[in-house]
Amino acid sequence: MVQAKPFTVSYLTSIPSKLVYHTHYQYEIYYFHEGQVSYLINDRIYKLAPGDLILMHGMTLHKALLEKQDVYKRSIIHFDPLYFEKHIQPSYTSNLLAPFTQLKNIHLSLSGEAREECEALLTKLAQLGQRTDVYAYQKSHAVLLEFMLFLNEQCQQPMDNEQMSNTSTKQHHVQNIITYIEQHYAKELTLDHLQHALHLNKYYLSKSFKEVTRTTIFQYLLERRIYAAKLLLVDSQAKITDISLEVGFKHLAHFSRAFKQITGVTAEQYRRQNQMLSS
Questions:
Q1: Distance CA 89, CA 69 (A)
Q2: What is the 3-state secondary structure (H, E, C) of 197-229?
Q3: Residue 157 needs a FRET pair 20 to 30 A away by CA distance; which of 70, 75, 211, 276 works?
Q4: 8 Å CB contact between 111 and 51
């Protein structure tokens, strides 16, 4: 198996042909430059503005939701937390991964000097990433350390607990659907269940969800169940049949088809590959 790079830095301006819900073992730093985008992380929807920064525990289900298809500019850093701890973080610092491990997923809105400093560090990392000499590689480690120190400083500031206050009524309803699925995905769910639980017409729920997330309620439910299965495959020794039942599939054959369709590999292959990476 080809080893993944310990960290990557990308400045992206292209409009993706398809945006899917996804997870990964690397931690993610996402900086939003320009566009009209909402970002779905687990059961939260964030309306983004230029200067917004998201720190994510990679195994959190997430996806960008483009409201317009004209401009979408963002910088993304993926990094291996084990590599960072072993090779980049000095012994004299506090735990620089705390924002990821303790706060899990964080949404920050930067302005003024903080925004300028963030963008300067991202630009420097991206430029170093274009070079192949050993000095660029070493410098990129130093700049990533500086960036992590900057992030920790920003995360000491009080967090705004009303980040959803600017969402529309439709987004609020979709938020409620996602939260309900998060709490009940392992059970049998139908549109009638959602209609009864949320006290809203099931056709309105279905239409609103598709408009906001660009996917259907049941495709999201399917991907949420597969996400739960991926965690159990790596973190437990439970039988695959038992895992499929635990995350909400009635039949192993349905689970197997869905798992390979979404991940590209069988559940057994996924377990073998990722238990090797985490060992």
A1: 39
A2: HHCCCHHHHHHHHHHHHCCCHHHHHHHHHHHHH
A3: 75
A4: yes
